[in-house]
Amino acid sequence: MTLDVQPLLGEVRSRDELPDEFFALFLDPTRTYSCALWTRADETLERAQSAKIDLALAQCDLRPGMTLLDVGCGWGSTMLRAMDTYGVNAIGLTGNRHQHRYVRDRLVDRLIRGRPYGGVRRQGWEEFDRRPDRIVCIGMLEHLHPRRYPDFFDFAYRILPEDGVLLVQTVVAPGRDRPDAHPARLAGTDSVFAPETIFPVDRLPPPTGRNPKGVTEYAVDAGFTITGIGKLGPHYTTTLQCWASALHEHRDRAIELAGRDTYNAYINCMTGYADYFRSGYLDVMQFTCTKHPARHQPAPPSVLPRDIPAPARQSQFPLRDLPDIVCR
């Protein structure tokens, strides 16, 4: 299985260079840019994204008045839902200037009306200087090089209280070492193409293991106990189908906003990655990491990845055919 993007690298614009309108062409109204959770056959993309966010927040043991840190907050959908549903204060971190401005503007009227506090910072997690009660990280970890994983989990462990919880949703590569696996051909393109679209397949870690090291082991080595793992992989195939179909439907406007090379790169990336999730080469998992007073506690042996029910809404067509499926 090969994802060949070399012919599409010409003038691919980085995510920071793209206007918000480009992403609005294929994302749901909340602009949630990660795997959704499809629980009903007639599910809209917006409801499926809300279901995913609710699943993640439910693992965090949130209570009114707590402070939630959203690392890689995107356009703010997770932090805003946490504020509305649980009455928590929320702080979002993003390095993207467009996302920072968008979230900041959405928070202004909430502050005026005395709603739970919300703030957004344009900075990396390494610069964060407060002590939240809970941390959620959805769709950010896969953009880090694995050599930075120890720093991230150490950071999260250090700033959380003794009963703190870190919820990480990330793409993993459980099928990378299968005898029939064929690595994605992205060599030489990571710095130009993959990180600026969805994620760099070549360097994704497995969910568990020591060689290569898995996400579970990075968290446990930092001192966390893994108290839950949920598998969402098939749901990303459906999500990617919705994105690709919507972007294809708005092809002319997308090319006007981003250029033909960027449009082609995004379509190719979405459809190619969908094949990986369908085959099991890639998966999406939610890791619930609970802080323990004593560091280096082993993960309970009973905690195994649990399969989230398969998506109720599934395509009967190959994604590369880009059928006219309306993603509402």
Could you describe the 3D structure shown?
With 328 residues, the protein is an alpha/beta fold. The protein has a single domain, classed as Vaccinia Virus protein VP39 (Rossmann fold). It is built from nine helices and eight strands. It has an eight-stranded mixed sheet with strand order 3-2-1-4-5-7-6-8, sandwiched between helices. Strand 1, helix 3 and strand 2 form a beta-alpha-beta unit.
Overall helicity: 25-40%
Instruction: Summarize the biggest pleated sheet.
Output: 8 strands, mixed
Provide the gyration radius in Å.
Answer: 19 Å
Strand content: 5-15%
Terminal CA distance reads 31 Å
Structural class label = alpha/beta
CATH fold title: Rossmann fold
CATH architecture: 3-Layer(aba) Sandwich
> What count of structural domains?
1
The CATH homologous superfamily is called Vaccinia Virus protein VP39
Question: In order across it, which strands form the biggest sheet?
Answer: 3-2-1-4-5-7-6-8
Q: Number of DSSP strands?
A: 8
Count of helical stretches:
9
Mean pLDDT, as a whole number? 83
- Return residue spans where pLDDT drops below 50 for at least 5 consecutive residues: 1-9, 179-196, 298-304, 316-320, 322-328
SSE pattern: HHEHEHEEHEHEHHHEE
Classified by CATH, the class is Alpha Beta
How does the overall form come out from the CA principal axes?
globular
